[in-house]
Amino acid sequence: MLKHFYSYIVETESIEIELANLDLSEKEKEHLLRLVDSNINHSVVDTILSELCEEDKKEFLKHIKNKNQEKSWKMLYSKIQNAEEKIKKAAEDVKKEILEDIRALKKAK
Amino acid sequence: MGNTHYEILRNKWIKKHKDLQKNLWEKHGNALNHFANSVTQIAAGSLGGIMLLTSPVVPLLPAPQTPAPKENIMPKIDKNVFLITDLHNVLPSDVAPLTTVQEEGAVKILTRDFGLKIAPELSGIRLNRSYGYIGQEQHLTRFPGDTMASHFSTQDAASEFGKQGMAPGLGAWGYFARSADTMTEKDNLFEKYYIAVPTFLAPGFSEHTGEYITFFKYRKMIVVNPNNGRAIVVVIGDAGPAEFTGKHLGGSPEVMQYLERVDGAQKGAVLYFFIDDPNDTVPLGPIDIK
């Protein structure tokens, strides 16, 4: 999985475990996990940007581009209240839908 | 036969991805566009509308003003997105020579995605770098008497690629064929899909000039645009460019067009590695991810 500045507060192992029980090749599993990762990332970035003004959005994106986790988090802590909780929630909402998709497929087997 | 688990989930999650992407761009398009324009070359509307704008930390898809890709090409497009993302993970933010770790990472990704034996070094020989700015080269004279009038087999190709003109001198290895009559399709493709690399800057070149020239002559390589995932199999057809140009290699008009790279102030970077293909089984030209 890709490493993001929020990776330490967002786990995706639960999805990997659910996928492990499906009939998937390693490559297919990898592809699906990347889609999951990207979907979570879009949601997290949307959540963060929604809390920032235009100038701060640009600055935050710059920190991400430069892979500067320290500056990313400093900015989040100073500009967004309960930033960690909001990021976790954005990720969890996506994960919940993903897990439901997997479980629905298992039930239909 | 019904859809496989993979297909069902893939289709669902790609749809979700598109929705998230659309939402993101609708809400934050100004900042994302500003950011994209400031950090990387974006070939607007290129590659069927797919482009990763930023580092892997924000694997965003393009602004929705580009035409939406057709559903039946989604799997291919997705593969490109992941290739771009993976390469961004290992490449430096500046266009600088790669460290050993970065080079190994890039080779591993390309080997996996293209199913070729790719290496920065073969027989103990390597170029001065494997990641750099590519510039536009002109067409090379394939045989004595080859001119722009004889160079293209179709009018469409002449219209598309004629404007770059013919280089005033021969390529580093001379003519590709002795005459128009004896020119093979292989000779023709060597010129069509050639790159120029500074062979003279390869470590050890001055001590082993003869051996190195033999090695580099029409050596097969893969060139990859890390910003759009496009890759092409080429041969080394010329030596250059000079260091003062600020470019690290050059591509034929056909190579540049496929990679969506341009010369001048908008020049962009590519990765370039040897292909270990002793039996000559890898065809020249554009190559898709497996």
What does this structure look like?
- The complex is a heterodimer of chains A (109) and B (290).
- Chain A is an all-alpha fold and 109 residues long.
- Helices cover 74% and strands 0% of the residues of chain A.
- Chain A contains five helices and no strands.
- Chain A is elongated.
- Chain B has 290 residues and is an alpha+beta fold.
- Chain B has two domains: 5-90, no CATH class; 100-287, Barwin-like endoglucanases (Beta Barrel).
- Chain B has helices at residues 5-39, 74-90, 100-114, 148-151, 155-161, 185-192, 209-216, 253-259, and strands at 118-119, 121-122, 125-126, 131-136, 194-197, 220-224, 231-239, 249-251, 268-275, 285-287.
- In chain B, the strands form two sheets. Chain B has a six-stranded mixed beta barrel.
- Mean pLDDT of chain B is 83; it is low at 39-77.
- The A-B interface holds A 2, 4-5, 22-25, 28, 31-32, 34-36, 38-39, 41-43, 45-46, 49-50, 54, 57-58, 61-62, 64-67, 97-98, 101-102, 105 and B 4-6, 8-10, 12-14, 16-17, 20-21, 23-24, 27-28, 30-32, 34-35, 39, 54-60, 78, 81-82, 85, 89, 93.
Strand order of the largest sheet of chain B: 4-8-5-7-6-9
- The percent range for strand residues of chain A is under 5%
Low-confidence stretches of chain B: 39-77
- Write down the CATH class of the largest domain in chain B: Mainly Beta
Number of DSSP E strands of chain A: 0
**Which whole number gives the mean pLDDT of chain A?**
88
Average pLDDT taken over every residue of chain B = 83
How many domains of chain A, as an integer?
Answer: 1
Number of helices of chain A: 5
Outline type of chain A: elongated
Query: Measured on Cα atoms, how large is the radius of gyration of chain A?
Result: 16 Å
Shape of chain B: globular
Tell me the helix content of chain A.
Answer: over 70%
CATH architecture of the largest domain in chain B: Beta Barrel
Assembly type:
heterodimer
End-to-end distance of chain B, in Å?
Answer: 24 Å
